[in-house]
UniProtKB/TrEMBL annotation:
Residues 1-178 form the Major facilitator superfamily (MFS) profile domain. This is Major facilitator superfamily MFS_1. One of its GO terms (cellular component) is plasma membrane. InterPro entries: MFS, MFS_dom, MFS_trans_sf. The chain crosses the membrane at residues 35-56, 63-81, 87-104, 125-148, 154-175, 196-226, 232-253, 260-276, 348-369. It comes from Stackebrandtia nassauensis (strain DSM 44728 / CIP 108903 / NRRL B-16338 / NBRC 102104 / LLR-40K-21).
Amino acid sequence: MTPLLGIALLGRAAITADAIALTMYVVLALDLSYAAAGVVVAVLTAGVAVGGPVLGRMIDRRGLRAVLLATIGAQLLFWLSVPILSYVVLLPATLAAGLLMIPVQPVTRQAIAAMTTAEQRRAAFALESVMGELSYIVGPAVVIVFAAQASAGTAAWGLGAAIVAGGVGLMLLNPPLRSAHEAAASPAARPTRREWLGAPMIAVLVMAFGITMLLGGIDLAIVATLEHAGQVSWAALVIGVLGAASVVGGLVYGALPRPMPTWLLLGLLGLLTIPAGLARDWPWLCVAVLGAGLLTAPTLSTVADAVSRLAPASVRGEATGLQSSALSTGFALGAPIVGVAIDAISPAAGFATAGLAGLIAALVGRVLMRRSTLTPRPSEPDQARAAV
């Protein structure tokens, strides 16, 4: 577990900074607008969202090393060529890079599910969420400093080297993606998508989307609030407090004796986000985001845990790919939607919109879960016919 989490931290820290690296390249090296950079980031996000389930299904069918070899080659070619690409060529190349992004996060989650018992899994996923928070704190900051000291093109090369290093480390480690008894199961036992992608799994994916939509909106609302107060230079500190609180929350949650349902954690996260809009300067904003920060990593970890439990081992790669797609889509839509609320009303409306997104996702997830428990189970003869 230790080398797996170490390699995952390297790979995820680099991958979380890819949008920043591309933005700085478009703005600084190509001398284009931030809107043009936003289009590149949107294309990258769309590629990652579409490619996640496809790569996961390929892992289920072809194995981990074959997929890692293909994605490592694609990332190496893309990041080496970024500093010489024009904007017109950069767009399709970025889409291809997103489609073939090294699946560090989904593979880590699959390996955790395979390497832990049911009793250990919640704590392991909580630790994985903490590693994710650390990667978001470290990765973009390192790229920004590196680009400021050297150049945007050099920063892109360095980021690409880190992404490739994470993929190579994962390929050399080759962690098990199925436990011993799961690996012994027959490949013919692979269930159809209708069998496992039911109401419970859809509920978890909806809540995963709601979590990242909320988180993507919080960052923008923090910046808008401090810009309105003339204190935008403190935004990095407030976001750092939010990330540090998430790390603490993940560690505490992983040590608790009993789990909490995802819908409840997400609902509380949404409720605690809304009042943060009452803060008017950076000291109070640091205090206001503590509650949301403490619940962030625990909520993300419960989503990963739920996906691992609901997905059969033979389709776990595709399921974790869908989870990554839901998370990526939430991040992509959260900032624009919250931005509209901020422009139309006020920065406080940004926090309210982000919190309501989390509340709605929690409510939808709870309703879907409730409906699945109320659906009558088939009788034994029906089960026998279905098995035949």
